[in-house]
Amino acid sequence: MKQREPASEVMRYIRTNSLKRLFWLRRRRSLDGDVECQKAAVSENPERRKGRFDNAIDAVVAAEDPQKRPIWKCFSYEEIYVATEGFRSERLVGKGGYAEVYKGVLPNGEEIAVKRLTRALNEERKVKEFLTEIGTIGHVSHPNVLSLLGCCIDNGLYLIFLFSSRGSVASLLHDEKMPTMDWNTRYKIVMGTASGLHYLHKGCQRRIIHRDIKSSNILLTSDFEPQISDFGLAKWLPSQWTHHSIAPIEGTFGHLAPEYFMHGIVDEKTDVFAFGVFLLEMISGRKPVDGSHQSLHSWAKPILQQCGIERLVDPRLEGAYDVVQLRTLAFAASLCIRASARWRPTMNEVLEVMEEEKIDLERWSMPEEEEEEDQDELWGLEDLECECDSSFSSSISQEDWASIESCQN
């Protein structure tokens, strides 16, 4: 029986072989002096394949259409070091359990966000998060999904994005020092986010399940166009699979679908549930979990069932909202947060509900016995969430982009 390699040797292999196989570091100078890099073709030598990390590399590199294979800029460490002024503390705009985000400025004046995976994360997990995120967002192209500009694998692992000048939805919605977000802006954000999520589920070459849809992971452009970010927990779902079974459970409390929280089952409906919580957050202005540890969806569900949707609305709006839009968004949220995944809509159907002026109650009605079972399952989830220690919640949540805010210099 072959002796297992020490962890240090395994990680040395990953760093020296897998990451170099991911990128073909054939740097060539273009007219403007930029440095380009392309992904390398994966070696077919079976002796070089050493387990799940190599499989992850293969998944990243493989593309259904060679013409659509992405070409990212391969930034040198010197470039990002200069852009962030040596990663000065004043340039730090976001910090989480797994990464730090710095604002940078390129020589041409373009503002970028440099996401540096922190040393606090163990080496194996760091590489896994890097491969997961770059593998999922490396080939996506949609105005409501954050695009990858490039990466750097010198002196650490870095992902580079365009800088989102307005920060995250959470930072604008919940910061008491910021002006109240008006209804039209909220409506634009939820519609754009729904469009981006539908694209991830149905418009990509591979089905992508985000697994951490929340307001701190929705970034805003200068004109308040939402962009879904932070793909560290994302999963590809092969077309022939109905779902993933995942352990351990990762995500953020208040957003976890019952079937995922209790059984580890992940599919598109997992993101639909989280989007429903996001909808309620945008309508109400309340955080997903309040100071008493009550989740937003458990607070809102009785109100939705009693048709008292006006009680959901953020009082800071002072009645300045579109009643028809409120009704459609609230109804869409009520469908998304159903405890039974079978009775939740797809994101395409969510978009249809939100765009229609008339609500089709008959189409979405549930049998009475199913409604009772759905309610029992929801309360069962609430009991489990209340029993969980808050430290566990923080240990599994990713807040890499939670505090990204506008930074002038």
UniProtKB/TrEMBL annotation:
InterPro entries: Kinase-like_dom_sf, Prot_kinase_dom, Protein_kinase_ATP_BS, RBK1/2/STUNTED, Ser-Thr/Tyr_kinase_cat_dom, Ser/Thr_kinase_AS. Transmembrane segments: none annotated. Keywords: ATP-binding, Kinase, Nucleotide-binding, Serine/threonine-protein kinase, Transferase. Gene3D superfamilies: Phosphorylase Kinase, domain 1, Transferase(Phosphotransferase) domain 1. Residues 87-359 form the Protein kinase domain. ATP binds at residue 115. Belongs to the protein kinase superfamily. This is Protein kinase domain-containing protein. It comes from the Eukaryota. GO terms for molecular function: ATP binding; protein serine/threonine kinase activity.
